[in-house]
């Protein structure tokens, strides 16, 4: 007997005249839902984007008729090019693994890649921001057989192939042309022929591959199964709202990360409209002004892809604040938002809503809840968790995700009470009055342990220092010591070998450091002394993950000599 997921609590599309929800009981996979929508919801909008200034209409929409047909065309196109090109992938019993690199917008890229998946292939979604060596490492790990590429990334892919040939890889991927948007979205195509129906899909087989970007090592490929994608699609049904028909701003979501894919999958089962950038032509670079303009033009009701850098700019823009305050929710996550920015936006009636998720597990918090306190979230009722108290830090917990019959993380690396679980290494602080609410405060391996055994979470200090317009990034150090310091990557060039230049920079940011020191009162005498403010060298910039997080252990190792020298010069413990 096939297992059926139980009916979730929050019905979607309860009053929609254009959207029938697909079954989410485990009887239908995500690729099969594409065919379901093409047959049952042809007139329901999927994507909305701003039109050019010459158009009378402010925005254009792709309906499921357009998107479903485009995905089928993508599948046929991929099949024709893959089968029609010689390859050194000779094992006919394994599914070809397909990657793609193209300088196109989300609607174009995701339509093609989900179409490739509909065609029966395994897609590996890889960030083009990674180096050729790292991409080659991922290709080797997952045996990528074919890669679709447009002109803008041919140089990158050539470098990747060169790396593979140097490594004498068993499989050198075939390079194919990424299709133009007009090859997928064909207007008034009376000759359209759908693919044959999918007979069945083994839910525990791999559907897509995403990469988990760690701060201590190379990215790790995570094989996401069809079962996990179905479970991700059900998170929206455990939220507070019926989101069908809402216009959800995804203008900055990226198609090769978990968040962009989670949002699209949720639209498949919830029926909301994804507001994205136009797939036609080359949209100009996204600025805070252009971003908020597209939110207004596409008549977004919710914004789910608001980078902290944009929120920081909007906090000082009355026009942007007026637009944001009219939305039902402004969702942020992935990178920490400064306390002063969050407080300012909240004070201006911007309905900020934090979200928490992982590549290994999808979205873990209630999806687009009714906003309350801007910096706290609740875990989704679908997600079984174990929160392990952090020793000697009241109200601080390490997050473990448990496996159950209705939900499981894709990766299991430990046990809790004899049952399989995933140790996230994320730390959350419990709300002072509501025990069901939490905020992310950092990572377990970010914590500094002093010589006394006392622990310090450096994130609050680092965020305050980064508030300075002179500071690009900052890392607190002091593991195993009795005093701490801070390593700063400046926005401009500062010669750290010139004592006068270094002293001038320290003076310029000292008020910011002094304010950060105020947050350290609870740690007794711990303070950042002026001589313990170190500045990076241009020849040794900070190392970042492709998502923009600092690779803390690697950077601190890179500057180990300078840090030791600072302690010795000040005769500090």
β content, as a range?
15-25%
Helix content: 25-40%
Shape: globular
How many helical elements? 16
CATH superfamily grouping of the domain at 30-300: ANL, N-terminal domain
Quantity of strands, as a count: 25
Described by its quaternary structure, the protein is single chain
For the largest beta-sheet, the strand count, sense and barrel status come to: 7 strands, mixed
Separation of termini?
65 Å
Q: What class do helices, strands and sheet pairing give?
A: alpha/beta
CATH architecture classification name of the domain at 30-300: 3-Layer(aba) Sandwich
| Average pLDDT number | 91
Radius of gyration: 25 Å
Low-confidence stretches: none
Record keyword descriptors for this entry:
globular; Rossmann fold; 7-stranded mixed beta sheet; 16 helices; alpha/beta; 573 residues; GMP Synthetase, Chain A, domain 3
Give a quick precis of the structure.
This protein is an alpha/beta fold and 573 residues long. The chain has 16 helices and 25 strands. The mean pLDDT is 91.
Q: Overview of this structure, please?
A:
Helices cover about 30% and strands about 20% of the residues. By secondary structure, the chain is of the alpha/beta class. Among the domains are: about 30-300, 3-Layer(aba) Sandwich (Rossmann fold); about 450-570, GMP Synthetase, Chain A, domain 3. A seven-stranded mixed sheet has the order 2-1-10-9-11-12-13. Strands 6-5-3-4-7-8 form a six-stranded mixed sheet, sandwiched between helices. Helix 4 (about 130-140) packs across helix 5 and helix 9 (about 290-295) packs across helix 10 (about 310-315). The protein is globular. The mean pLDDT is about 90. This is AMP-dependent synthetase/ligase domain-containing protein. Keywords: Phosphopantetheine, Phosphoprotein.
